[in-house]
Amino acid sequence: MAVPYPSDYQLRMISINPRGTDPKTWWYKAEPDLKLTINQGQICIPPSFYTFEPHQQYVIRTVMWSDKKYQQTQYGGRAVIAAFEIEDGHAWRVILEEREQ
Questions:
Q1: Were 91 and a residue from 40, 46, 84, 101 both cysteine, which residue would form a disulfide, CB within 3.0 to 4.6 Å?
Q2: Which of 1, 90, 6, 66 is nearest to 40 (CA)?
Q3: Is 1:15 a contact under the CB 8 Å cutoff?
Q4: pLDDT of residue 75
């Protein structure tokens, strides 16, 4: 998952769900269980963290925090939402629907 302008942002929460999942049943992880990092503007999600099923579309929602941004502007939080489909062992970007944004 791409994180534009990553700066010093750190992941605080991630939600990964098949497209169309009822929000009441969303799967998520937050600190301190969260062991993912942003590296060169990317978040890589290994199979040991979450198992993606082939031929399935997913929506990922993240909440990130930047101490540097907070010190400069008093607004350090940021959310990034993405959708993709797993096909042939790769994640292919799909367009978010309006209700998913």
A1: 84
A2: 6
A3: no
A4: 92
